[in-house]
Amino acid sequence: MRGVPPPFPSIVVSMVQTLTDSRQSAQPMRRFKVRKIGIIIASFAFLCTVACNTQPSNVSHPTVNASTPTQAANPPAVLPPTATGGFDGAQAFEHVRKLVEIGPRPPGSDGIHRAQTYIISQLKGIGCPIEEHDFHGSTPLGDIAMKNIIAKIPGTGSGIVLYTTHYDTVRLPNFVGADDGGSGTGTMLELARIFCARKTKSTLNTWIVFFDGEEAQGEWTDRSSVQWSDADSTFGSREMAASMALSGDLKRVKAMILADMIGPSDLKIKRDKNSTPWLTDLIWATANQLGYANVFVNESTIVSGDDHLSFIRRGVPACDLIDDEVQSTYWHTPQDTLEKVDPRSLAIVGHVFIETLPALEKKFR
Ligand SMILES: [Zn+2]
């Protein structure tokens, strides 16, 4: 994930259409961008950014505060699975807790090997058919062994829907990636538990994918040394899209859905303009029907440099679900810790994922 490190309050994001070029060049690790409409509004945005930087408890994230161990030990109350289509937010959160306990999980590290063991053992334990795709990422730090993990739940037809996330974390000491790397992984593991246990097959083949190597490879202790680029990021999703193109499977993919940073208790997911409009509409309509219009909001953002683009560039409909406002707080800092993740938020996204499948079945019937 790349982003504009300074925060942009949502009201400014919706008004301003792009950051100035000078601002982008000053911030090489860019992920979220807004389009330009004029120097006056850009200046206003900058002033507002400065103001927000001086006020950590800004209005966009009233409940995201400095962490304490006691908060982690007592996670917020969850929605019961009976209210979220069977998705257990507490169980998804438990997966996040286990991943955080492992510690930093950058590609090729002992930590990510332990995370791989955890993900694979969990998937096998719930009876999911899984595949491990090993490959090497050619990175600024040299060749790094990476692994995508895929649970493949067979359907009755030929179409495929991909539910995806990344499980690696940035290469930063003491960075445990509870939200960035953890929240999506925990949610997908719980989704796998539900989908793999189903007796009745979907018409769609449902693949749940855990990507390695989403983050740019470099030493993030010196952020200015990390040059986020299309060639140095999203290694796992680029590998999978390329190998599916070679095998011919890519043509069968009806939709690719990506979860990345969905943990905040005040979760706010905006429509990504780089995502496929019809798929975004379908997911937002599903969320609205379930009563989550306050989470899946009618605001837009532009997410660049994330795993969905590896598929969009190859003509596959894809949608990224991400809370882009966290970049003003703990994003890519050691403060991305367990209490930044709320089981309730995982349950809401998980519920939407569960109900998105029948909506896709209907569309591709
Ligand atoms: Zn990240």
Helix content: 25-40%
Fill in the CATH topology of the largest domain: Aminopeptidase
Ends: how far apart? 34 Å
Radius of gyration: 19 Å
Q: Can you tell me the number of structural domains?
A: 2
**What can be said about the biggest beta sheet?**
6 strands, mixed
Number of beta-strand segments: 8
Structural class: alpha/beta
Describe what is shown at a glance.
By secondary structure, the chain is α/β, with parallel strands linked by helices. It is 37% helix and 16% strand.
Describe this structure in words.
The protein is α/β, with parallel strands linked by helices and 365 residues long. It folds into two domains: 56 residues, no CATH class; 267 residues, 3-Layer(aba) Sandwich (Aminopeptidase), CATH 3.40.630.10. Helices cover 37% and strands 16% of the residues. The chain contains eleven helices and eight strands. The strands form two sheets. A six-stranded mixed β-sheet has the order 1-2-4-3-5-8, sandwiched between helices. It has a two-stranded parallel sheet with strand order 6-7. Strand 1 and strand 2 form a beta hairpin. The longest helix has 21 residues. About 20% of the residues have low confidence. Bound molecules: zinc ion (ZN). The site of zinc ion (ZN) has 5 residues, from loops.
Distinctive features:
365 residues, Aminopeptidase, 2 domains, six-stranded mixed beta sheet, binds zinc ion
Strands, helices and their partners?
Elements lengths: L9 H6 L5 H6 L12 H15 L15 H5 L15 H14 L7 H16 L4 E10 L2 E12 L6 E7 L11 H20 L7 E7 L23 H13 L5 E7 L9 E4 L4 H13 L6 E6 L6 H5 L5 E4 L21 H21 L2
The structure holds zinc ion.
The site of zinc ion has 5 residues, from loops.
